[in-house]
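Run log // design_07
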């Protein structure tokens, strides 16, 4: 079995193969008589560790740090119109008796499907808006921007305290929503009324930040 994004190959017995996919996740299955990878030894099961609380978040352009609440940046009047990156930080104590290999942000939230006249979208609200890079003990573990919303921690996590840093970026829409439209009067007088700003009069800030439950698995 080959990861559609990572390219990681895992040997599996095709006579009894199951594939558990997250919403909008995909896999590529390659059938071969030759083994492409050695079967991985099963890891001892451990109860997921909820690490959703106790984070601080620093809005980099604002030099503003607050306890992370799990709510959208747009819910706070001070960051309602913020667009850019913010850094979440937390020290997590991993018990020696557990082996965790994944940092999971949750499956996302299904939304009601609606007919669209233009464009396409996934009918799910992701738990991270819109993308994030995860660092564990100072080393990059991976990026989060698509389903499944998780990163493999590999050997970066160890027993005892671990410093986790997550840099999250949203889109420019929030900042644009807090601005008034430019005055195009002089341009129109010189060149004529050649365009209309599309959908710019009713912009609203979008949900931003880490919005789901964070767990080690």
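design_07 sequence
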């Amino acid at each position: 079995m080959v990861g559609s994004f990572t390219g990681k190959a895992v040997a599996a017995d095709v006579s009894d193969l199951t594939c558990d996919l997250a919403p909008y996740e995909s896999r590529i299955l390659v059938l071969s008589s030759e083994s492409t990878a050695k079967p991985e030894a099963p890891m001892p099961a451990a109860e997921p560790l909820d690490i959703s609380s106790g984070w601080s978040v620093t809005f980099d352009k604002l030099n503003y740090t607050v306890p992370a609440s799990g709510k959208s940046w747009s819910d706070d009047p001070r960051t309602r119109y913020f667009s850019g990156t913010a850094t979440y930080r937390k020290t997590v104590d991993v018990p020696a008796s557990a082996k965790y290999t994944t940092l999971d942000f949750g499956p996302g939230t299904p939304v009601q499907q609606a007919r669209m006249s233009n464009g396409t979208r996934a009918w799910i609200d992701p738990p991270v808006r819109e993308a994030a890079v995860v660092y564990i003990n100072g080393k990059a573990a991976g990026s989060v921007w698509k389903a499944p919303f998780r990163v493999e921690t590999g050997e970066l996590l160890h027993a005892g305290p671990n410093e986790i840093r997550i840099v999250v970026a949203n889109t420019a829409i929030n900042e644009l929503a807090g601005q008034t439209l430019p005055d195009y009067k002089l341009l129109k007088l010189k060149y004529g009324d050649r365009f209309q700003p599309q959908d710019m009069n009713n912009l609203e800030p979008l949900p931003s930040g880490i919005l789901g439950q964070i767990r080690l698995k």
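The first strand starts at residue 2 and ends at 3.
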